[in-house]
Amino acid sequence: MAALPFIKFKEHSRMKDISIEKFIAGIPKAELHLHIEGTFEPELMFTIARRNNLKINYSNVDALKKAYRFNNLQEFLDIYYAGASVLIHEQDFYDLTWAYITKVNEQNVKHVEIFFDPQTHTNRGISFDVVINGIQRALIDGQRKLGISFRLIMCFLRHLDESSAFKTLEQALPYKKWISGVGLDSSEVGNPPSKFQKVFEKAIEEGFLTVAHAGEEGPSSYIWEAIDLLKVIRVDHGNRCLDDDILVKKLANLQIPLTLCPLSNLELKVVPDLKEHPLVKMMERNLLVTINSDDPAYFGGYMNENYLAVAQALHLSKKQIVQLAKNSFEASWLSKPEKQKIMLQIEEYFQNN
Ligand code: ADE
Ligand code: ZN
User: Fold this and answer.
1) Could you say which ligand is closest to the alpha carbon of residue 79?
2) For residues 168 and 158, what is the distance between their CA atoms, to the nearest angstrom?
3) SS3 151
4) Is the CB of 38 under 6 A from ligand 1?
């Protein structure tokens, strides 16, 4: 018996030495900013294109991957929409979503709140039902087989007009039970949130929660519009809020979460270097920030790679990583008891690692 405390101490001290990489890999996390079309890995894209008898503009996977160099959001979006155009059948949407779920399962992601862009598909003649049935079926399988809980968020493409967004909202109504919220994505500059105020009013009337991409490339005024006009309860990106002191105070006071995407910001030249990423400045100002992957197949990393990249560039401590993991659940749409349960698990993980 006398040896037990000694063994325990040794064990404890050894475990405390785990690298930041392992610490990130093992901690439970939630992903709140993820475009399912942005998880389309080149290998799967070629497989699905082949079975649908479609041609991709690149001769092979390597040639396609070489094209993944972007100077801004629009250059990325052009390739992203082209890639999504090989998705035709319900099974294609299932396979896409299932590939993402199995990938994040390996990364200890326990909860996901994912975007889909119906207009990217309905504008090519694919029916709304085909898209949502494939995605939802894979998410349900992920919950049943892997225990990953989920919410689905339908995004309107902001480069399209208001009437197209209204039509999409109409198509979503029979699937209200499956769709928790609506969001706003695509080309930001020149397409302010105010363009969609009426659509979001109707969405709220119908019971959807609201989020919007704002302040990724666009100005801080777009974040104000997202909050004041679209009544968002979470801001996607929000990097540019730091330009406006009053806005920062508002976001901090109301604890409106920001879903940050570090590798996306780097690849789209929103930041020149991860060392200049605003994450830590935002944490110091008491903003409820989370780490997410956005479009992992295009930006070189899923959740753990995003956490690790900022941890290394900004020298994050384990305590800060724990804070980010806790924030990801706090900012999620899980219930209070679900949040409390996972917070305890994260705290226990911290104590043991
Ligand atoms: N759609 C997919 N990824 C996006 C991003 N980072 N910003 C805006 N729209 C997007
Ligand atoms: Zn995004």
Assistant:
1) 1
2) 12
3) strand
4) yes
Q: How many domains does the chain have?
A: 1
Ligand 1: centre distance to CA 13 (Å):
43
Residue 255's domain is classified under what CATH number?
3.20.20.140
Enumerate the β-bridge partners of residue 77: none
- For residues 283 and 289, the answer to whether their CB atoms sit within 8 Å is yes
Task: Establish how many alpha carbons lie within 13 A of residue 306's alpha carbon, considering only the half-sphere containing its beta carbon.
Answer: 33
Q: Is 213 annotated as a binding residue?
A: yes
Give the DSSP letter of residue 124. Answer: T
Question: What distance in angstroms lies between residue 121's CA and the mean position of ligand 2's atoms?
Answer: 17
- The answer to whether residue 11 scores a pLDDT higher than 80 is no
- Within a domain: residue 309? yes
d(CA 262, CA 225): 23
Q: What is the pLDDT of residues 117-150, one digit of tens each?
A: 999 999 999 999 999 999 999 999 999 999 999 9
* 28, 330 Cβ separation under 8 angstroms: no
Is 295 touching ligand 1 by the criterion CB < 6 Å? yes
* Mean pLDDT rounded to a whole number for the chain: 96
- Helix/strand/coil for 173: helix
DSSP result, 193-222: GGGGHHHHHHHHHTT-EEEEEESSSS-HHH
Tell whether 129 is in a known binding site. Answer: no
Q: Which domain holds residue 232?
A: 40-352
Cα separation, 17 vs 319, whole angstroms: 14
Catalytic residues: 216
Q: Are 187 and 194 in contact (CB under 8 A)?
A: no
Residue 116 bridge partners (DSSP): 154
Ligand 1 within 6 A of 185 CB?
A: yes
**31 within some domain:** no
Give the model confidence (pLDDT) of 73-84 as tens digits: 999 999 999 999
The answer on whether 95 is annotated among ligand-binding residues is: no
Residue 312 token pair: 């290394």
- Rounded Cα gap, residues 63 and 108, in angstroms: 31
